[in-house]
Amino acid sequence: IGSAYPSNPRKGSVGQATPAGRTYGLTSESVRQRLEREQSLTLLEFNYMVMQAYDFHVLAESRGCLLQLGGSDQWGNIVSGVEFGRRIGGRALFGLTAPLLTTSSGAKMGKSVSGAVWLNADRLSPYEFWQFWRNTGDADVGRFLRLFTELPLGEIARLDVLRDSEINEAKKILADQITSLCHGADAAAQASETSRRAFEAGEVPAGLPTVRLPDSLRGNFPLVDAMVVAGLAKSKSEARRLIVGGGVRVNGGGVNDKAMRLCDSDIQDGVIRLSIGKKRHVLLQLV
Questions:
Q1: Residue 202 in contact with residue 252, Cβ under 8 Å?
Q2: Which of 215, 233, 212, 211 is nearest to 224 (CA)?
Q3: Cβ contacts of residue 11 below 8 Å, gap of 6+?
Q4: Which residues pair with 152 in a beta bridge?
Q5: Nearest 10 degrees: CA dihedral of 15, 20, 26, 30?
Q6: Which residues contact 39 (CB under 8 A, 6 or more apart)?
Q7: Cβ neighbours of residue 159 under 8 Å, at least 6 residues apart?
Q8: pLDDT band at 159; cut points 50, 70, 90
């Protein structure tokens, strides 16, 4: 936590020259490192600091907001706001950052990352939320149980030593606990049951994510396009690679033709079930 303001505030802005004759924006750690590494820095990226600083100032003026919270990667932007508020109005503002959440591989977990985990159900259904945590990597289970659940540490220690197929029990408990906290116990139980029926019993439960497509596309819709629309692939090229690799199934049957087109005969009980591997399923519904 920090506060960046001296006893003699001066009028100015984030980009105003400092006593040393250098601009504040150019001396910020994130910008300085980019310039030293000769990495490109767009005008939009550079101005983001100014925009966030001004936003902090406006919140302080209009709402009395004196503290801005953020991930550690936002430290430079937050301190810019602290400095901006000091220069404009002599106001003492503060910033507090926390370490970024990352997986054991170092990958960042955040809203700007593909496949972001949204807390609100209109952005990510409770089932998909539950499934995300069920698919946690083995190396992250124990740490996530400590970070995101209220289980006793003794119980977490017991789950943390599970290995091989037994660790799936810990993953299910992790998913149940986090989903209960965010969406309620009933939603967690329903998501767990939907997953069990889909993966263990081989059924097509109604709780699976459903993507609705216009009826005009019926009988003339490439499978690769359906996979992109359903969120099972980021691009058509990725969809083709998945198909060629044998990881795609339509209504439970394997597919190896990357030029396949979905038609009326693929519709079963009003939907087409698309699957990637054993863990990702989407119901495609024509409306």
A1: yes
A2: 233
A3: 87, 88
A4: none
A5: -120
A6: none
A7: 141, 142, 145, 151, 169, 170, 173
A8: very high
Question: Residue 257's pLDDT is what?
Answer: 92
From 264, 272, 258, 265, select the one nearest 225 (Cα to Cα). 258
DSSP secondary structure of 214-281: -GGGTT-EEHHHHHHHTTS-SSHHHHHHHHHTT-EEETTEE---TT-EE-GGG-BTTEEEEEETTTEE
**Per-residue pLDDT tens over the stretch 31-55:** 777 777 777 777 877 788 889 999 9
List Cα–Cα distances, 235 to 51, 102, 167, 210, 227, in angstroms. 32, 25, 32, 19, 8
Tokens 């789950």 found at? 159
CA pseudo-torsion sign 18, 23, 24, 27: negative
From CA 103, how far away is CA 101, in angstroms rounded? Answer: 7
Q: At what angle do helices 185-199 and 167-183 cross, to 10 degrees?
A: 140
Kindly report, residue by residue over 270-286, the tens digit of the pLDDT.
788 888 887 788 888 86
d(CA 33, CA 24): 14
What does the buried/exposed string (b/e) look like for 108-147 if buried means 16 or more CB atoms within 10 Å of the residue's CB? Answer: eeeeeeeeebeeeeeebbbbbbbbbbbebeeebbbebbee
In 3D space, the residue among 63, 57, 67 whose CA is nearest the CA of residue 98 turns out to be: 67
Q: Which residues are 275's β-sheet partners?
A: 249, 281
**Can you give the pTM of this predicted structure?**
0.63
Q: Which helix (H) or strand (E) holds 197?
A: helix 185-199
Instruction: Tell me: pLDDT of 10 over 50.
Output: no
- What is residue 285's three-state secondary structure? strand
Assess contact for 200 and 162: CB atoms under 8 A. no
Is residue 216 within 8 A of residue 190, CB to CB? The reply is no
Which pLDDT band, with edges at 50, 70 and 90, does 3 fall under? very low
**CB of 60 closer than 8 Å to CB of 85:** yes
